Prior knowledge:
Chain A: InterPro entries: GrpE, GrpE_CC, GrpE_head. Chain A: Its main location: cytoplasm. Chain A: This is Protein GrpE. Chain A: Belongs to the GrpE family. The complex is a heterodimer. Chain A is α+β, with helices and mostly antiparallel strands. In chain A, 60% of the residues lie in helices and 13% in strands. In chain A, 7% of the residues are buried. The mean pLDDT of chain A is 87. Chain B folds into 4 domains: 5-177 and 364-368, Nucleotidyltransferase, domain 5, CATH 3.30.420.40; 224-303, ATPase, substrate binding domain, subdomain 4 (Actin, Chain A, domain 4, Alpha-Beta Complex), CATH 3.90.640.10; 403-511, Sandwich (Substrate Binding Domain Of DNAk, Chain A, domain 1); 528-617, Substrate Binding Domain Of Dnak, Chain:A, Domain 2, CATH 1.20.1270. In chain B, strands 1, 2, 3, 4, 11 and 12 form a 6-stranded mixed sheet that branches. Chain B has a 4-stranded mixed sheet with strand order 15-14-13-18, sandwiched between helices. Chain B has a 4-stranded antiparallel sheet with strand order 20-19-22-23, with no helix packed on it. The chains are: A alpha+beta, B alpha+beta. At the A-B interface, helix 1 and helix 3 of A face strand 16, strand 17 and helix 11 of B.
Amino acid sequence: MDTQEIQKKLENAEKQAQEYLAGWQRARADFLNYKKEEMERIGEFLKYANEEFILKLLPILDNFTEAEKSIPEEKKDNYLKGIAQIKKQFEDFLKAQGVEEIKTAGEKFDLNFMEAVEKEEEERKGYKMNGRLLRPAKVRVTK
Amino acid sequence: MSKILGIDLGTSISKMASIVNGEPKCLETREGSVLMPSVVAVSKTGERIVGILAERQAITNPKNTIHSVKRFIGRRHSDPEVQKELKLLSYETRERSDGEVEVKMGDKWYTPIEISAMILQKLKLDAEEKLGEKIKDAVITCPANFDDSQRKATKAAGEIAGFNVLRVINEPTAAALSYGLTKKADQQIVVYDFGGGTFDVSILNTTPETVEVLATGGEAHLGGRDFDQRIINWLVEQFKKDNGLDLSRDSLALQRLKEGAEKAKIELSSALDTEVNLPFITSDASGPKHLLYKLSRADFDKLTADLVEKSIARVEKTLAEKKMAKKDIEEIVLVGGTTMVPSVREAVKKFFNKEPNKSINPEEVVAIGAAIEAEILRAKTEGRAPEGDIKSVLLLDVLPLSLGIETLGGINTVMIQKNTTIPTVKTQIFSTAADSQPAVEVVVLQGERSMAKDNRTIGKFVLDGIPPAPRGLPQIEVSFDVDANGIVTVTAKDKATNKTQSVRIEGSVGLSKEEIEKMKKEAELHADEDRNKQALIEAKNTADSLVYTTEKTLKEAGDKVSADTKRQVEEQIEALKKVKEGDNTDEIKSKTTELQEAIQKIGAELYKQAPEKKGPEEGEYKEK
């Protein structure tokens, strides 16, 4: 092989090495971007993944609320105050999970978030989680 | 080919990372956390425990629980600094015959090297279990100010643990490597490392081949734990004021306060206020007492301002020692969990008047850098790829701001989202906005705002010679190609004629960090307003194209549509045209829906009149 030929071969090899390196970089960048998209998808999924679990916790909160309502004012001592604070902790936890109470008093009846009941005893708080309905509020509708 | 570990052997916490599926990643210990306390203990039953389990039993077994051993590794017992440290310990120590430190655990004496080896061995075993293979090689990090004997001791600890220690590298160097900051020639970097118990600052000079430590400084006892303590003190004070009881003398209450304080600190990194809620914290003759206080970020900042100030003063001093000015520093890297505190980040940014690098988890960044160094060394020795190439593949950049083009109505249609790893390519088909439109102008935008005019225009060109056609019919393929150096090539191709036009934009990614941050902030600030504007324009565009198709359908249908329907539809078109000029998105949308329903009526009438036509058309289709 003469020098010119070797020169040409070297140039070709260098060019090819550049192309391969660029291809390698692209393959890796594609993979990383794919992973980012997957993570986003999973993140979106996780946002609601606890839904069922939290739905099952709500009756416990309902009972807390009922208990609190039924205790006469004069019986509310320091022990009960502590229990009420635990209820608040529970509520704060739900809030941190994206759970919020559906506002009903004075609002227009919205069948997307509310269910009509007849008697006051049947009323129940409703909740949304990250903007999506978790449990409809049971409300008495007044015209 | 077995995996290599990158290990950040810390004073209070250690971490490990490896290249998994081509990407550096921190590995979890068996107990499920990437953060492993650098604590070793011998339990009352004589069992040796390491990591989180050792920390959990520390209170009940302080004499046999060894922590912070890194403070003594490779140092002499007589060293005045060591003497000072020794006074703070809960376990026994003594001087060895060779002048080094020894610690007592159980009924035996150990050197700091042996204790460190136990920590490293635990990491090794957990990594092997996680990755399902034996691990031989490791890169271990150490503080930049470690002297030769401390480095040798660190290496020896690795070897006792069963590793082949490829290299002991500086923690700040590893952090800079994680961010790929070693690619540029001759730049000064400050690594601000605010950990759980120590604060370190290093000034580095980097070139693609070397990293030189210009100066180091630090505070041996300043860290996240001091931040927690400030919250605890504040809670104790408040409680004393309100209830007259001193919680600091109640060890059970103190333990709950400690947990509550740490939780509050972490929450305040993202929230503006938080609550410390600890019912039944203590009791007196009158019954139980409950603790419930709201702590705002502003209050927290006030409580800890002097701690942050102390770290900044140390940075200033270290710069002065090297006779360097703030403006000489091109990059700042944040390391350590405490840099997640917003006031700390803010203080660093304010001091340097520059946005620090913080996108990689500051608790993991050193271990990740060590894993990258390990992979580079490995690839080189195996002859797999030259150092430069493996670096250029492992340390790909991300796009700092989104890239897009201007579309109908002045909307910024994003082609490549910010934070996309480059090199990358994205192609999308666009069309014309008017009948017989002969050319399209491609305006390339950079930024996060919805409206084109609020972003930076980084290039534009015209693709002409589009054959006359109704609007929406021509297919213009626009592709964005960003190479590994951030050079953007935008190409537009008319699919009918294959006519192509393109523009190459260099240095578009090279905005300064401040400019990028400013643009991102503005986008956040205007997010709602922008979304509304975009929704309005999109509604207008939909209305516009519906008016166009309806008018066309009416014209083509001619007298096949009853005069009644025709008049009704025309009225609705007029109504839509009128609201379309206004700015009421909802109204435009509702009128659009009405017209859509009306146009279906025309469709129905047309079909009713030509039922026989339907058959043959279908037949024709089938024959093809």
